[in-house]
């Protein structure tokens, strides 16, 4: 498989992010919109939704789950957190903090909120034309693949078509401390298999030289 040069400029990504930051489609969501860096990358990571810390800190995966995620990438790729953020474009199913449930914990985004935010993911797919998509967590994975147990999904690479754009997809479990799946078997082994697939992918190797410019 040959990875072609990214046809998009950082300026075009910055323009997209400016429009995304101004989004007001979901009145129940908590602003500000959380976005990553303006990276013209062929690797697209799709998280679920920001937690309550991310809007304050101004970046996705800014708290406990992020620390775990970046440890995974460092172990598999040898990249620091800054290098990951400079080489992989960070998207999400929803870009605003959904708020808390009355019973505690973060509210799961409503179907209409997911549909509203899918507009931005579609634009990013068309803008970046990623060769590799990394959905993180069940909500993100089901935007690209049929619902299935993590045991049947993690550790494998899938060829997907999203709104007419084809790419490889390597799902990852959510790095949340609330989920024990990735810390026990078979999750530990399947996670390592998935990270090896990520490390070997040509788009990841190319990202070292074609990240932020």
What does this 3D model show about the protein?
The chain has 213 residues and is of the alpha/beta class. It has a single domain (28-207), classed as Uracil-DNA Glycosylase, subunit E, CATH 3.40.470.10. It is built from eight helices and five strands. It has helices at residues 10-21, 54-57, 64-77, 81-87, 111-128, 138-141, 187-200, 202-207; strands spanning 43-47, 89-92, 132-135, 158-162, 165-169. α1 (10-21) runs antiparallel to α5 (111-128) and α3 crosses α7 (187-200). It is globular and about 40 Å long.
Strand and helix layout:
Layout (H helix, E strand, L loop, with lengths): L9 H12 L21 E5 L6 H4 L6 H14 L3 H7 L1 E4 L18 H18 L3 E4 L2 H4 L16 E5 L2 E5 L17 H14 L1 H6 L6
Parallel strand pairs: 1-2, 1-3, 3-5
Antiparallel strand pairs: 4-5
Helix pairs in contact: 1-5, 3-7
Mean pLDDT: 94
Side-by-side strand order of the widest sheet: 2-1-3-5-4
Strand content: 5-15%
How would you describe the shape? globular
Write down the domain tally: 1
Rounded to the nearest angstrom, the distance between the terminal CA atoms is: 24 Å
Q: Could you spell the SSE succession in H and E letters?
A: HEHHHEHEHEEHH
Q: Major beta sheet, specifics?
A: 5 strands, mixed
CATH fold topology: Uracil-DNA Glycosylase, subunit E
């Amino acid at each position: 498989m040959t990875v072609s040069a990214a046809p998009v400029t950082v300026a075009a990504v910055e323009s997209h992010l400016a429009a995304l930051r101004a989004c007001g489609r979901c009145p129940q969501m908590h602003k500000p919109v959380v976005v990553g860096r303006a990276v013209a990358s062929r690797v697209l990571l799709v998280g679920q939704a920001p937690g309550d810390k991310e809007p304050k800190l101004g970046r996705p995966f800014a708290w406990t789950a992020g620390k775990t995620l970046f440890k995974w990438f460092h172990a598999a790729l040898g990249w620091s957190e800054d290098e990951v953020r400079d080489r992989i474009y960070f998207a999400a199913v929803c870009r605003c903090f959904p708020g808390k449930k009355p019973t505690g914990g973060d509210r799961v985004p409503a179907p209409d909120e997911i549909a509203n935010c899918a507009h931005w993911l579609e634009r990013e797919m068309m803008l970046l034309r990623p060769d590799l998509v990394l959905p993180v967590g069940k909500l993100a994975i089901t935007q690209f693949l049929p619902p299935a147990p993590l045991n049947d999904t993690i550790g494998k690479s899938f060829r997907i078509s999203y709104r007419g754009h084809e790419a490889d997809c390597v799902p990852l479990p959510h790095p949340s401390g609330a989920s024990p799946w990735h810390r026990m078997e078979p999750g530990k082994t399947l996670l390592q298999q998935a990270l090896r697939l990520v490390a070997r992918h040509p788009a990841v190797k190319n990202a070292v030289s074609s990240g932020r410019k």
